[in-house]
UniProtKB/TrEMBL annotation:
PROSITE patterns: PROKAR_LIPOPROTEIN (PS51257). Residues 1-26 form the signal peptide. The keyword Iron applies. Belongs to the bacterial solute-binding protein 1 family. InterPro entries: Ferric-bd (IPR026045). The keyword Transmembrane helix does not apply. Coiled coil: none annotated. This is Extracellular solute-binding protein. It comes from the Bacteria. Gene3D superfamilies: Periplasmic binding protein-like II. Keywords: Ion transport, Iron, Iron transport, Signal, Transport.
């Protein structure tokens, strides 16, 4: 689980493959801020370089840390494109007016349920919230019927989540969009009463600290005696991509997003070690109101419920 404002940016990873030369006058390098799994982002970058001759510099970090950096950099950002694990970070940057309109052909590659009406970003992979649990502590019959059940009294002290992490905040943002603020507020109060805030719920379960935890399905690595249980009432969360308005290599960045979301990029995703689902033929619907995502309100509701401090560290 990535923690809220988590890992610091690392040194740029330059993926130069010596592919065919770029056409005269074309960009030969783009900078991509990436919160994606490094192996998947590198595979996409290698594939794009092989296909176009354009090198990709990946600058790695956590969703919210990179969103904050982009907002701070504004028009001075060196980034041409932005890849995230969760959609709320994209919405934060979009709300700051920093994202370019994507090419119509790129948007048309992605089903409408995996992109907002604004056309400022697209989904590039799909993730689903899930419950990781200790098989020695919980039987199949004892598992929660759904995400909402975790706020009920029988789950008090039995599960945890990364409240400061972008993954859990994406779950809250999706619930807010799908079910509205009142139900979300009530659910969060139950979460506050029942759950423990931990950096890595999966490891806490594996260590016997708690019986279960909320994670994204693709983060499960199967440590110890853990197993994964899906939430039938939870909507999928979307990993996304966007082009920065201030980027110096607009055309190349547009080509990169089109590659990642297109047949070649989605084939790379399917062949990767990532457990994410491709946006083409994904197995469950995302929230149909992606344009209505409100990460700022989700954060406020979490703060009201006592899951986040009044001035969360960013």
């Amino acid at each position: 689980m990535r923690s809220y404002g988590g890992k610091a940016l690392v040194a740029a990873i330059v993926l130069a493959l010596g592919a065919c030369a770029s056409p005269p006058g074309a960009a030969d390098t783009i900078v991509v801020y990436s919160a994606q799994e490094q192996a998947l982002a590198q595979a996409w970058a290698r594939g794009f370089t092989t296909d176009t001759g354009i090198e990709v510099i990946l600058r790695d970090g956590a969703d919210l840390a990179l969103a904050d950096r982009l907002i701070a950099e504004g028009a001075e950002t060196p980034a041409d494109a932005f890849l995230t694990e969760n959609a709320p970070a994209l919405d934060l940057v979009a709300d700051a007016g920093l994202l370019a309109d994507l090419d119509r052909a790129t948007l048309d590659q992605v089903p409408s349920r995996y992109r907002p009406p604004s056309g400022r970003w697209i989904g590039v992979a799909v993730r689903t919230p899930a419950f990781v649990y200790d098989t020695a502590e919980l039987s199949q019959a004892e598992l929660p019927a759904g995400l909402l059940e975790l706020a009920q009294p029988q789950w008090q002290g039995r599960w945890g989540a990364g409240f400061f992490g972008a993954d859990f905040q994406a779950v809250v943002t999706g619930l807010l969009a799908a079910r509205g603020p009142e139900l979300t507020r009530t659910w969060l109060r139950g979460v506050r009463a029942n759950a423990t805030s931990v950096l890595d719920p999966q490891q806490a379960v594996a260590d016997g600290i708690m019986a279960g935890g909320v994670i994204s399905h693709d983060d499960w690595t199967g440590p110890g005696r853990t197993a994964l249980h899906p939430f039938p009432d939870a909507t999928a969360t979307v990993s996304g991509g966007a082009v920065l308005r201030a980027g110096e290599q607009q055309r190349a960045a547009q080509r990169f997003l089109a590659f990642v979301a297109g047949p070649q990029g989605q084939t790379i995703l399917r062949a990767s070690t990532s457990a994410k689902y491709p946006v083409i033929a994904a197995p469950m619907p995302s929230d149909p109101r992606l344009g209505a995502l409100d990460p700022a309100l989700a954060t406020r509701l979490m703060t009201e419920a006592g899951l986040l401090p009044a001035a969360p560290p960013r």
